[in-house]
Amino acid sequence: MRGAGAVGYNAGVEEQRLPGGRHVGGVRIGDTVHRRTNPWTPTVHAVLRHLEAAGFEGAPRVLGFDEQGREVLTFLHGDTIGERHPWPAWPHSDEALRQVAAWMRRLHDITAAFVPPDGATWLAGSWHPGLIIGHHDASPYNAVWNDEGLVGFVDWDTAAPSPREFDLAHLALTWVPLHARHVAEFQGFTAFEDRSRRLHVLLDAYGYDGDRTAFAGAVIGRARRQAAVIRRMAQGGQTSLLRFAEELDQAVIEVQALPASFWRA
């Protein structure tokens, strides 16, 4: 039976597995993306509809559900990293830093006015006034890029309430990048002596007016929190994820070793 908001599904149309995204895989059918739902899907849809109403262009639109019960979203056209190694050049460009930071600032400013529906369920966290809704996995893996620059981000299941710094710290880890050196090298990044400058390009583009020397603590706290979440998931049987927690542990060690001058503009 097709419920409210159901979208017609043609079983004869070929499903194409999408290479982008790191949380929940989806398939492309024409200009739509179909993905399995989770308990927090209705809340995420409320966030995406809030963004659409505000004219925010960097996120997919909610179209409803198909006859298999999967959510249906618009497809963002552009390049994604997928499983390529090393990465293409665009994630390591200054222009990418500026555009993803500006994208995140718009997201945070718009969602600062978001009030969740009654009974809202999140993948993690809880809402109270004063928090924004962050994407929380706006990494290069989830970015869509074209010849004009950043199109937007996919995989919104991780969207949840938080302070601004918690989401921004993830950008620093994955785009500067402040991740463990061996992880960044595997992705094709080698300009480690340029990371301080790149960090401030990112923060300037966001318009960050907080204490930048204290931002080190936000990055460390974010990496530790993410490692802890991964370890809880591994206890549930997803042991293949443990190496990601170990990589984040190494990132913490390396970020702690950075001099105070690294964080000063």
Structural features, described:
This protein has 265 residues and is α+β, with helices and mostly antiparallel strands. The protein folds into 2 domains: 16-74; 90-263, Aminoglycoside phosphotransferase (APH), C-terminal lobe (Aminoglycoside 3'-phosphotransferase, Chain: A, domain 2, Alpha-Beta Complex). It is 38% helix and 12% strand. The chain has helices at 41-53, 94-111, 164-175, 181-186, 195-206, 215-235, 242-256, 260-263, and strands at residues 16-17, 26-29, 32-35, 62-65, 71-74, 132-134, 143-146, 149-153, 160-162. The strands form 3 sheets. It has a 5-stranded antiparallel sheet with strand order 1-2-3-5-4, with helices on one face. Helix 2 packs parallel to helix 5 and helix 6 (215-235) packs antiparallel against helix 7 (242-256). The longest helix has 21 residues, at 215-235. The protein is globular.
Topology:
Layout: E1 16-17, E2 26-29, E3 32-35, H1 41-53, E4 62-65, E5 71-74, H2 94-111, E6 132-134, E7 143-146, E8 149-153, E9 160-162, H3 164-175, H4 181-186, H5 195-206, H6 215-235, H7 242-256, H8 260-263
Antiparallel strand pairs: 1-2, 2-3, 3-5, 4-5, 6-9, 7-8
Helix pairs in contact: 2-3, 2-5, 3-6, 6-7
Which features does this protein show?
265 residues, alpha+beta, Aminoglycoside 3'-phosphotransferase, Chain: A, domain 2, 2 domains, five-stranded antiparallel beta sheet, two-stranded antiparallel sheet, 8 helices, 9 strands, 38% helix
